[in-house]
Amino acid sequence: MRHTQSASLLAALLSATTQVAAHGHVTNLVVDGVYYEGFDINVFPYETDPPKVAAWTTPNTGNGFISPDEYRNPNIICHENATNAQAHVVVGAGEKVNVQWTAWPSSHHGPVLDYLARCSGSCETADKTELEFFKIDGVGLISDSEVPGTWGTDQLIANNNSWMVEIPPTIAPGNYVLRHELIALHGAEETDGAQNYPQCFNLQVTGTGTATPSGVLGTELYTSTEAGILVNIYSSLATYTVPGPSLYSGAVSITQTTSAITSTGTAVVGSASGVASGPEVPASTITPAPAYTAATAGSSSGTQSLYGQCGGINYSGASACASGSSCHSYNPYYYQCIASA
Ligand SMILES: *[C@@H]1O[C@H](CO)[C@@H](O)[C@H](O)[C@H]1NC(C)=O
Ligand SMILES: *[C@@H]1O[C@H](CO)[C@@H](O)[C@H](O)[C@H]1NC(C)=O
Ligand SMILES: *[C@@H]1O[C@H](CO)[C@@H](O)[C@H](O)[C@H]1NC(C)=O
């Protein structure tokens, strides 16, 4: 009898724990149909040498949240005790990134936000407390015809628990941290009742844009008393102001869609130097390397420098890599010259 009792007590405790813990996290990104694994919170924290992915690492195995009393604490930047991702995904400015969540609880209504912060060097080594984020997306209250209303998170749930965000076409190529965030407001009528769920990813943005929008530090994004944070969503709201800094003028608002997965890609490990800003190889040291002959490799003659693109669908530039480097396929859309082993 005692055993039965303690077993059912344990079961009750476990289920209570599960309910408390069952909020969510991002499982993967999809860019142009290419699937990139996220930070596997159920596995990676227990591994001594977890895979290098574009998602930042956090020991937040309970799927918890950051509350407003931590808005001045670095935990708000990329979640609790987060450390830099050790790889990045290459994405063109103007392309869309689909961010896949685990099943989001329908009671957790609130805004969906996306920010970018440019890293001065590699985002793999950037100091998160110095990153300056500019907002590229913010969807709050969509309809309040029925309290508590239809919110960004409801749209996310309806969109297969995923969110599509467009990388602004105007921004300069380079390395960026994508800070994607859900804020649950079901308890936000009380001070410190809002729940922030930030998730960060390293991106290398390619393209020909020139804009370098100014941003704000992660620890200065929000205040605990601003209108979009301290708010009672169970009363009818005439308006709702998405919290945080104003939207970057070049941000592109898009209709939510999903992204069918057509292949699996690997995040790029190693130097995150932009294609345009990759280390220069003195002309005298360039010796022609054998052409890389994959179907999607580049087609024109010439030699690509280290970290430059050397292939991918519709890429027509040089496919040969400078001496000492070789062409590596990361996904069907992007091949890069990397240092030869
Ligand atoms: C984050 O770091 C603090 C300070 O070292 C520690 O007390 C806390 O337990 C850590 N959180 C997690 C989820 O590991
Ligand atoms: C919906 O999400 C699941 C993962 O939760 C994924 O396997 C599936 O491909 C997604 N469907 C679409 C249409 O994106
Ligand atoms: C490749 O080029 C073709 C023809 O211009 C275009 O239809 C297709 O969308 C391009 N694919 C990608 C991945 O850019």
From TrEMBL:
Residues spanning the membrane: none
Origin superkingdom: Eukaryota
GO biological process: cellulose catabolic process
Pfam families given in the database record: AA9 (PF03443), CBM_1 (PF00734)
Alphabetical list of CDD domains matching this protein: LPMO_AA9 (cd21175)
Reactions performed catalytically: [(1->4)-beta-D-glucosyl]n+m + reduced acceptor + O2 = 4-dehydro-beta-D-glucosyl-[(1->4)-beta-D-glucosyl]n-1 + [(1->4)-beta-D-glucosyl]m + acceptor + H2O
Domain CBM1: 302-338
SUPFAM superfamilies tied to this protein: Cellulose-binding domain
Location(s) in or outside the cell: Secreted
Residues forming coiled coils: none
GO terms for cellular component: extracellular region
Major location category of this protein: secreted
Assigned keywords, A-Z: Carbohydrate metabolism, Cellulose degradation, Copper, Disulfide bond, Metal-binding, Monooxygenase, Oxidoreductase, Polysaccharide degradation, Secreted, Signal
Secretion signal, residue range per the UniProt entry: 1-22
Entry's free-text remark on domains: Has a modular structure: an endo-beta-1,4-glucanase catalytic module at the N-terminus, a linker rich in serines and threonines, and a C-terminal carbohydrate-binding module (CBM).
Name of protein: AA9 family lytic polysaccharide monooxygenase
